[in-house]
Amino acid sequence: MAADTLAPLKDGKAPQPVEALWADFDPRAEPLDVEVLKQWEEDDVVMQVLRYRVGIFKRKKSMMAAVYGYPKGATNLPGLVQAHGGGQYADYRAVLSNAKRGYATISIAWGGRINALDYKVNPDVVKLFFDQATDHPDYKLTTDWATLDGYQWQAVLLSPADFRNPSGKAGALANWREIKELKLAPKHKGDPRPEFRNLRWVTHED
Is 11 domain-assigned? Predict the structure, then answer.
């Protein structure tokens, strides 16, 4: 595997000033590694569901899924990017509409969800991809952030019993406002709660 796309942090600190974040970054230096997952033509527009390389992070390749379309036979086109998809989906309808107006258009499946003809990836299918359930009839390739936490936050209701307090003892905690450190109690076999790599702690007044 090639070297990481971005240089490692120095002393764990982000580069300063902000322009230094991309000062040495060349977006054309790495190949896109495009994978066309499905292709069709509609109203003189070439439509594709594809994945392309975002970069190499912690020695793992991250791939973004998207719906892409362009007028058939056209070259040197202006481009449009639907950065988060439509309604958090990469949706072929917006791509088709803009491509018919003369734009090369891409709708990005940031969270892995795709709405395209004969290629639909809803949250259940995203989970199949996460679980690598390749034998499932609905399994489809989609966005793979690999070692990055690039997906949107998910909400889940947890009780005090789901956590360990700073002393390491599991169980109910008397005063949520006094909690300084929280660690999820380990999941037991068959626990239906999802796995989380990131958690945000939110409190609200009674």
Answer: no
